[in-house]
Amino acid sequence: GIPAALPQPIDQGGTRLGVNVHLAQYEEDLPEVLAEIQNTGIEYLKQTFYFSDEFDWQLSDRIIRAVEAQGLQLVPLLDGDPATGFAPPADVQEYAAWTAEFARRYGDSLNHYIIWDEPNLSSHWGGAPVNPNHYAAILTAAAGAIRREDPNAVIIAGPLAPTSESGPDNLAEPLFLRALYEAGASDAFDVVAAKPYGFDSGPE
């Protein structure tokens, strides 16, 4: 799918099969579940981890080690706290410190890190109007913290939700992405993520 006119291949390009998972619900049967996933030909698992002051490292240890043992690739989504309505952290350095610890603990097992989820929707921004500048600060701080612990990390900007709105609550993907560039965050991420939901439209 890459046009021949491009001067060089895209570093992170290519087709890879992945699936969203919620592995925290499995305990003794986690290896069996992961084996079933692997048997489908899927290689990548996107698992959400929620930032909080009382983060359960034992749970993340169990999940990440089990995925690694199965030979699968885990892509962590480092999201906000559902208990706060995914409100952005007032102190971005607290969130960045958590992402740094995440990379320090698991960098040998990970290649990719997703920073937040759907930052262009009020429903994933604590119910407040979305703020691309604040997200740019979060993304920049987290990316720098992760790269100091894992220099080979591939940073994925928070997946943008499909919307045609122009604010203040929700902001269309192109508008939000443009605002990130205007905020000077372009060096903070390697991959742009989006959610091309079809809603009531067929895949064609």
Protein described:
The chain is of the alpha/beta class and 204 residues long. The protein is 32% helix and 13% strand. It has helices at 30-39, 57-69, 92-106, 132-149, 173-182; strands at 18-21, 44-50, 73-79, 112-115, 154-157. The two termini are 17 Å apart. The mean pLDDT is 92.
Summarize the structure.
The chain is of the alpha/beta class and 204 residues long. It has helices at residues 30-39, 57-69, 92-106, 132-149, 173-182, and strands spanning 18-21, 44-50, 73-79, 112-115, 154-157.
As a percent range, the share of strand residues is: 5-15%
Element order: H for helix, E for strand: EHEHEHEHEH
How many distinct helices? 5
List segments where confidence is low: pLDDT < 50 over at least 5 consecutive residues: none
Q: Based on CA inertia axes, which overall geometry fits?
A: globular
Profile the largest sheet: 5 strands, parallel
In total, the number of strands is 5
How much helicity do the residues have?
Answer: 25-40%
